Amino acid sequence: MIYSRIAGTGRYLPERVLTNADLEKMVDTSDEWIRTRTGVERRHIAADEQSTSDLCLEAARQAFDAAGVTKDDVDLIVVGTTTPDLLFPNIGTLIQEKLDIHGCPAFSVEAACTGFLYALSTADKFVRAGEAKCALVVGAEILSKIVDWKDRTTCVLFGDGAGAVILQPSEEQGIISTHLGADGQYKDLLYYPYGASKELHKTHLPDAKIMMKGNEVFKVAVKTLGGVAEEALRKNNIDKGALDWLVPHQANLRIIQATAKRLGLPMEKVILTVQDHGNTSAASVPLAFDVAVRDGRIQRGQLVLMEAFGGGFTWGSALLRY
Ligand code: UT7
Hints:
10 helices, 32% helix, 24% strand, binds oxa(dethia)-CoA
């Protein structure tokens, strides 16, 4: 049996750091409110001239080095993002051009904060089917460019960044299974109101900002994330106690704690980056994974559960042996 295995990881965070103290000067909020309600302490913000593909580029280069591959080995590019540079060409092809890669399939997957897990699940199937031998999978966002910096209910939450992994075929266990889901009935709880075929023609965009009913999102997120995490374990007959690490979507510390509790996992086994990165949507899981691989917590052979939840709603989990 052929598995796809994470051969290397990388990340990029923009240089500029915006702290809660900085936000106190911008909107009616406080460091105390942000910390206690979300766990966020600081977040990285992209420079005006940076686009999402620029962030992907740096993360990809790190992942190549970590995997011991070069850009010429790459035969598939899949990117999870909600903030692509352009409506088209898709961001996968923009990364391809910047990396001087030619010919391989390159595309993006739009699933909000679950984007990376949707991308990982897709690339995993290409590798296991023998259609890719070196897949670059990226989760990246520049949410700061679609956030309303006057809206305290959203602007304190989000950040920018990119995380990447290289997937290669392996006879040893790598990605064991992925579990994706969605339910469009919740589309009005978390969305961005403009796109290509609806309202984009408007020149005046007073409501062009992330719209979120945070409280309602919170409740569904807690319930759904616990469910999709347990699904991954149940389908593989793996006991909760066997997990070495949980790498959750970094939207809110309280949501993460609730999922860990449902899995019976102590917080020492949970990778937390929400305090440093904020909610980076599709980038949050690969960023957290790379942090923990590089600081030596996640070791080869260990059992890792990733999970995410986002607008749509969409959700997903991936159980893997690193
Ligand atoms: O990543 C994709 C999925 N997204 C999520 O999972 C996000 C899920 N939701 C959440 O994380 C939380 O709902 C939030 C962090 C967004 C909000 O926390 P909350 O505990 O649900 O607060 P709330 O929305 O119920 O607001 C409580 C109070 C309100 O004031 P009143 O009505 O009680 O007087 C808000 O106006 O907090 C107020 N508030 C703020 N106060 C200071 C809202 N934002 C702020 C702020 N600073 N930044």
